């Protein structure tokens, strides 16, 4: 039986996911076999496992930090918002159905057997499981049917660390207020408090920590400084999605990603962000697009409504204008679907409409009620024109989409030849037409050969000096960042005490 520890937060974005990853990395470095677990995650960023199942990206990141392959047992329930009041409910990696919030809250306790089965699978395999909560355990309107915070801690008898975000201000009120709203038995589970994202002199903080203990006699187990790390963010609250200015000097490649209201898998672009020759910026207004070297239309959890949003806000017109000026446009998944001529949702997967696409690719997309989920690798087809340098480059990633896209005969050609690593099938992916291209492959820039080729292609086209990408693969880069995170945890958290409360 594994030892366990649960990380809960005073609010969303307090840093639970990162703290969890850091503790996992420390435990791994100390010789333990460790795994992350989050019973229920809500995020538009998802991932396809080696066996074709869907899970949240946060637990994938944590699995990487733990040095293990991600599996769906680490995140048995995934909620992917489809609107402000509803989500697609994914159980054990397979879509169950779309549910309004009210229906899901009435239903979710039925999922406890699935949650416990997933946890037990990890329990038998690993020395330690580090669990992550969601939001705050002090949401008193949700406590009755809780399956992800104190309800989960009770199910597996896990000690809890409570994390507050000092960078936002009010961390003492966050911690005390959360503790005060817990039931007495829940308070007893909280073994330590953590102040995250601290900037400044620790000595100035000490009097407050002493007063905090007088009010709330739970030790502060760590004060984690604000550390600049390039580790995947869980959701679109991430600061990386804030708009940034274009590189007016012209010394860097100016790459624009359209920040869709329901943008999904924005982690597709993390590999580009780290490159010194790239200025990557997210925009949500037509006037912000400017005259970039590349426009990327990313994935979406609600393709039709996001396409309508593009039209309403004048972004579609600007994309078309840029494309006619020979600025490259690249679509991924939902973005690829939008670039086509028609999106047919007669099956009512989203809105039940049949609407015209942007019309930059001769592609018709027909939605289906079944979701295509797979990991894939392949090779970019021989290309001409501006995409010629990508021809025969290796590519890899994963697909996760509702619908199939058909390319009009004789009007364009495929982007890549794909091998489905789940079922062994081979097929053609995507479409290329002039300076516009699209693919279903998420994570395509994580493959070093493709990413280097793509950046060199843009650099040559724009007259900007590139360095062929990075000497380090993206995977190596991520592992380095996890080690930096572990260093910060060791230096600023009482790991001896953490080991004690876990019984190690």
Describe the protein.
- By secondary structure, the chain is of the alpha/beta class.
- It has 2 domains: 3-231, Rossmann fold (3-Layer(aba) Sandwich), CATH 3.40.50; 243-471, Class I glutamine amidotransferase (GATase) domain (Rossmann fold).
- Helix content is 30%, strand content 29%.
- The strands form 6 sheets. Strands 2-9-1-10-11-12 form a 6-stranded parallel β-sheet, with helices on both faces.
- A hairpin with a 2-residue loop joins strand 7 and strand 8.
- Helix 1 (16-29) runs parallel beside helix 2.
- The radius of gyration is 23 Å and the shape is globular.
Task: Provide the number of structural domains.
Answer: 2
CATH architecture of the largest domain: 3-Layer(aba) Sandwich
> What percent of residues are in strands?
25-35%
Q: What is CATH's topology name of the largest domain?
A: Rossmann fold
Shape: globular
Give the CA-CA distance, first to last residue. Answer: 13 Å
The number of strands is 26
CATH hierarchy, class of the largest domain: Alpha Beta
- Number of alpha- plus pi-helical segments: 16
**Largest sheet at a glance?**
6 strands, parallel
Widest sheet, order of strands:
2-9-1-10-11-12
Mean pLDDT: 92
Work out the helicity level: 25-40%
> Which parts are unreliable, with pLDDT below 50 for 5 consecutive residues or more?
none
CATH superfamily of the largest domain: P-loop containing nucleotide triphosphate hydrolases
Q: Class by helix and strand content?
A: alpha/beta
Radius of gyration: 23 Å
């Amino acid at each position: 039986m594994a030892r366990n520890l649960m990380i809960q937060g005073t609010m969303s974005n307090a840093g639970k996911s990162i703290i969890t990853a850091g503790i996992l990395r420390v435990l791994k470095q100390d010789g333990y076999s460790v795994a992350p677990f989050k019973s229920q995650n809500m995020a538009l960023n998802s991932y396809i496992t080696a066996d074709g199942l869907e899970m949240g990206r946060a637990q994938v990141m944590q699995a990487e930090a733990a040095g293990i392959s991600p599996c769906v047992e680490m995140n048995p329930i995934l909620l992917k918002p489809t609107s402000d009041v509803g989500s697609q409910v994914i159980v054990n990696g397979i879509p169950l159905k779309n549910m309004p919030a009210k229906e899901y809250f009435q239903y979710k306790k039925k999922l406890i057997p699935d949650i416990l089965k997933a946890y037990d699978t990890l329990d038998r395999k690993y020395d330690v499981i580090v669990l992550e909560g969601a939001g705050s355990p002090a949401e008193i309107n949700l406590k009755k049917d809780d399956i992800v915070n104190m309800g989960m801690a009770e199910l597996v008898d896990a000690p809890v660390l409570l994390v507050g975000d000092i960078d936002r201000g009010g961390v003492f009120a966050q911690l005390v207020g959360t503790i005060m709203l817990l039931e007495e038995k829940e308070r007893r589970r909280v073994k330590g408090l953590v102040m995250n994202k601290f900037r400044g002199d620790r000595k100035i903080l000490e009097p407050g920590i002493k007063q905090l203990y007088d009010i709330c006699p739970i030790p502060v187990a760590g004060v984690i400084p604000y550390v600049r790390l390039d580790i995947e963010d869980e959701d679109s609250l991430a600061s990386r999605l804030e708009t940034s200015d274009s590189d007016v000097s012209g010394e860097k490649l100016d790459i624009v990603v359209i920040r869709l209201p329901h943008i999904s898998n924005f982690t597709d672009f993390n590999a580009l962000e780290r490159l010194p020759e790239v200025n990557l910026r997210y925009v949500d207004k037509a006037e912000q697009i400017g005259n970039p070297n590349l426009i990327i239309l990313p994935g979406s959890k609600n393709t039709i409504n996001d396409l309508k949003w593009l039209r309403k806000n004048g972004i579609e017109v600007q994309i078309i204008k840029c494309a006619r000026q020979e600025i490259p446009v690249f679509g991924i998944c939902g973005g690829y679907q939008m670039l086509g001529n028609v999106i047919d949702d007669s099956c009512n997967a989203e809105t039940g409409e049949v609407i015209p696409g942007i019309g930059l690719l001769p592609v018709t997309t027909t939605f289906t009620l079944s979701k295509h989920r797979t990991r894939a690798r392949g090779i970019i087809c021989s290309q001409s024109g501006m995409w010629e340098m990508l021809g025969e480059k290796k590519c890899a990633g994963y697909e996760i989409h509702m619908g199939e896209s058909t390319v009009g005969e004789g009007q364009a050609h495929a982007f890549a030849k794909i091998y489905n690593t789940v079922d062994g099938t081979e097929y053609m992916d995507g479409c290329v037409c002039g300076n516009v291209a699209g693919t279903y492959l998420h994570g395509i820039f994580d493959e070093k050969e493709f990413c280097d080729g793509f950046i060199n292609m843009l650099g040559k086209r724009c007259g900007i000096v590139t360095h062929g990408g990075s000497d380090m693969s993206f995977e190596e880069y991520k592992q380095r960042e996890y080690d930096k995170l572990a260093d910060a945890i060791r230096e600023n958290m009482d790991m001896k005490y953490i080991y004690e409360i876990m019984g190690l």
